[in-house]
Specification:
heterodimer, A: about 220 residues, alpha/beta, Rossmann fold, 2 domains, 5-stranded parallel β-sheet, 12 strands, about 40% helix, B: about 475 residues, alpha+beta, Beta-Lactamase, Heat Shock Protein 90, 5-stranded antiparallel β-sheet, about 55% helix
Chain lengths: ~220, ~475
């Protein structure tokens, strides 16, 4: 996967570059709009990360310009602004996504994966998900662990489905709140944790290998190995 | 120009102004007329009195000179009748008989000697005898059988007899009546016309004011780019509009400045936060010992709290200045509350709290969903943090006066009475609270930014109550 990173802060650029390379992306970086548009037109990129506050131009004008130049790869917008302005929302509806700073790396990676998946030609959508001995029937909304039916509430099923779709990868609390409950909030209480504990109580029964792992300060991961 | 949404004219200030102006005008003109009327009436009476006095003198003279023989009655009678035809203010009488003038002569003993006029003169004589009539000074005389009084002048002859000449006030009154009628019609016309003119001009003037007020009210919290309409005329109203627009210019520029400051502050703080967080996360992913990981994890958590604090502080600061930027969209409060309660219920029951929702149905508000989400999360976080176990949290949603009412009640210890008056101020928190004291200030800020209010109090039965009102979306 070829990724173009447009970010002017050297600190952020360097850590993003290394962690994205670690995640398997071929990263090229640009620090301003001009060099970014040159790179984007010349190189065939699969995905772009664009910071809104560039020294020479506004990130949104850069994206619009790239679209005019025929760059169709999806864009993940990074914003240090507090309120997400309407133009970003417009881009979001056009298939791009945004993330406000500071963010968790796990969330950045998850959003990149989402964008790439959205842009790839739609394959036949699976009706069953399988992670080790955990199986989810998406049509009947039923989950089984080692052949045993789990008694889940509809909301717990959605949460488990989200974890399964991201099996082996870290999901943060704010990702869970955004994807499962549809809201970008940052509660300073343990609301998400309690949902996970309850789900874990049902999924990881006595004597079974625990599937849902907590990574403190980062989030959760559903083990796939 | 007449706005469709305008209230009926009766509630307009133009209506009241024109009513009072017309009342003043009507009273003034009425007063002027009353004086005029009196002047005219006095003048008419003076003229007829002068005529009566002159005529009665002539008749007295004639009666003195005419020999008292059989022709006396005829001579004096004819002279008297002639006099009656020269009556001042005379109108054409329908009947031939002249009943507006009478001539009466009494002999020395007071009996009727000579009578010229309508009827036989007996009631007139009776009326004359009932009052004392001073010579040469005309007096009012009410005669039985006549609706209008007579004006009577008298003269005493040498032989002790009296001559009375009476002139009915009927014609005089008729002149005055027609004067009154004409004036009244004219007055009515003037008053109506005046009312129309005053109403029209004040309505026009006030409709400019109304347009300005409507435009000004449309310039909401978030949209400061609009301006009130101005007119080319150089009057007070256009001055008002210009002044308002200048004021809006100043507000917009200071608002813009505030946004620039908060944005650059946010940016300058967020960029290093992002870099620090990223570096911490990267070092965490590398294999390391548990004790080291622990300190990095808690550093990341501190960092997230700091970010949240920064966000809320800036939001509260902007909201206090009425400068919070909103992305408005329809939002179903009932649906949102159900999702929120679904989200918070496990944590609450884990802590031994019960939460109940009483909703009166779906209410749509026009709101920034991200802010409202955070506001409700804040409310519930507060409950979760500050209410002791085995308490009940009641969440009610109802409608009152075009506003959605969100009432959160609990039966916990309530707010610390020491801080109760300052609940919505920044950095105010209870002694035992470990938050940063922004929660309620943030709730108030979001409610205000949406044109609503937030109230917090302690219930009489014990426990805290927070009421948030948010205006419903106009259908």
């Amino acid at each position: 996967m070829r990724l173009l990173l447009v970010e002017d802060e050297p600190d952020i650029q360097s850590f993003l570059k290394s962690s994205l390379s670690e995640a398997g992306y071929q990263v090229e970086a640009a620090a301003d709009g001009k060099s970014a548009s040159q790179l984007a037109v010349d190189g065939q990129f699969d995905i772009l990360i664009v910071d809104l506050g560039l020294p020479d131009q506004d990130g949104i004008s850069l994206i619009l310009k790239l679209r005019q130049l025929g760059v169709s790869a999806p864009v993940l917008i990074l914003s240090a602004r507090r309120s997400v302005d309407d133009r970003v929302r417009g881009l979001e509806q056009g298939g791009d996504d945004y993330l406000t700073k500071p963010f968790a790396l796990a969330e950045l990676l998850a959003r990149l994966r989402n964008l790439l998946k959205r842009n790839s030609p739609p394959g036949s959508e699976a009706t069953r998900l399988r992670v080790l001995d955990l199986e989810l029937d998406l049509l009947r909304r039923e989950a089984t662990r080692a052949g045993q039916l789990l008694q889940l509430t509809p909301q717990e099923f959605v949460l488990l489905e989200y974890l399964c779709r991201n099996a082996g990868r870290v999901v943060t609390r704010s990702m869970i709140l955004d994807q499962v409950w549809g809201m970008r909030i940052q509660p300073d209480t343990n609301v998400v944790d309690v949902h996970i504990y309850r789900l874990r109580g049902k999924v990881d029964g006595l004597g079974q290998q625990p599937l849902i792992r907590t990574l403190r300060g980062v989030g959760y991961v559903l083990k796939d190995r | 120009m007449f706005s469709k949404t305008a209230k009926p004219a009766i509630h307009s200030a133009a209506w009241r102004i024109s009513l009072w102006a017309t009342l003043a005008f009507a009273c003034g003109t009425m007063l002027v007329f009353v004086f005029l009327h009196r002047f005219v009436a006095d003048d008419i009476q003076r003229r007829s009195d002068a005529w009566l006095s002159g005529e009665v003198e002539v008749l007295g003279d004639v009666a003195e000179r005419t020999p008292k023989n059989s022709l006396y009655d005829r001579v004096v009678g004819e002279v008297a009748e002639l006099a009656g035809k020269e009556v001042p203010n005379k109108l054409l009488s329908e009947s031939n008989s002249n009943d507006s003038v009478f001539f009466l002569q009494t002999s020395g003993d007071g009996s009727l000697q000579l009578w010229v006029g309508a009827g036989n003169g007996a009631p007139n004589l009776k009326a004359i005898q009932a009052i004392k009539i001073v010579s040469d000074h005309p007096t009012d005389l009410h005669v039985q059988g006549f609706g209008v009084p007579f004006r009577v002048a008298s003269i005493r002859l040498d032989d002790g007899s009296y001559i009375y000449l009476g002139l009915s006030e009927r014609d005089e009154l008729r002149v005055l009546r027609s004067l009154r009628l004409r004036f009244f019609l004219l007055w009515l016309l003037l008053v109506l016309f005046g009312f129309g003119i005053v109403f029209f001009t004040t309505w026009r003037m006030l409709s400019h004011v109304r347009e300005i007020a409507e435009a000004a009210s449309r310039i909401g919290h978030s949209d400061l780019t609009a301006r009130v309409p101005t007119t080319k005329r150089n009057d007070e109203v256009s001055h008002l509009a210009l002044t308002l627009n200048r004021m809006l210019d100043r507000i917009e520029s200071s608002m813009h400045q505030l946004h620039t400051i908060t944005d650059s502050l946010a940016h300058d703080l967020r960029s290093p936060l992002t870099a620090i967080r990223g570096k911490l996360e990267m070092s965490l992913s590398a294999a390391m010992q548990v004790e080291q990981a622990e300190s990095i994890v808690s550093a990341i958590e501190e960092l997230d709290r700091l970010t949240d604090f920064l966000n809320k502080s800036l939001d509260v600061a902007e909201a206090k200045a009425d400068a919070l930027r909103l992305n408005l969209a329809p939002l179903n409060l009932d649906e949102l509350l159900r999702i929120m309660i679904e989200l918070y219920e496990p944590s609450m029951s884990e802590k031994g709290l019960q939460i109940r929702l009483h909703s009166r149905g779906s209410f749509i508000i026009e709101a920034d969903s991200a802010l409202i989400h955070r506001m409700i999360a804040n409310l519930l976080d507060n409950e979760l943090k500050h209410v002791p176990e085995s308490c009940v949290v009641n969440l009610q949603l109802q409608v009152e006066n075009d506003a959605a009412l969100l009432i959160l009640e609990d039966d916990g210890p309530g707010f610390d009475p020491e801080i109760s008056p300052h609940l919505f101020e920044r950095r105010v928190k209870g002694r035992d609270s470990n938050g940063h004291g922004l929660g309620l200030a943030f709730i108030d800020a979001v409610a205000r930014a949406h044109g609503g209010t937030a109230r917090a109090s302690n219930r009489k039965e014990g426990g805290a109550q927070i009421v948030v009102t948010l205006p419903l979306a106009s259908v």
